[in-house]
Amino acid sequence: MPLSEEELRLLEQMERALVEEDPKLASTLRGTSLRRSARRRAIAAGAAFAVGVTVLMTGAITELWIVGIVGFVIMLASATIAVTSLRGQQAAAADPRTAGHPAHGFTVIDGGRSGSKIRRPRRTPSSSSFMDRMEDRWRRRRDDGGGY
Q: pTM (2 decimals)?
């Protein structure tokens, strides 16, 4: 059921009051700070990668292998950070909850629990023991060719 004009006006007033009172909370509710921080993290990781390349090449030129290893570790760490932050940024952009919403509107941020987890009913202690379940799993792995 759509909101009436009066309700929309009151909602906008409450949003403006919240932004004036606590802009950090409003930014968190909006979700845009997450994308900005992911973008900043990716840019910083790119700069660190360039520093890592420089350190690696310095180690190769001066024939100090420890300097080259340090440069490689810097490159590896920065590439990992860049990839994870870019994945998070793409996931936030592809989120259907945030798509199409105005920049000043609020969106709901998932609180950590995902709907994909299915709760299985607990077995009663008398149904089977822990060791029986482990033996069953071991037999299934061995029979399916799962190896160790």
A: 0.44
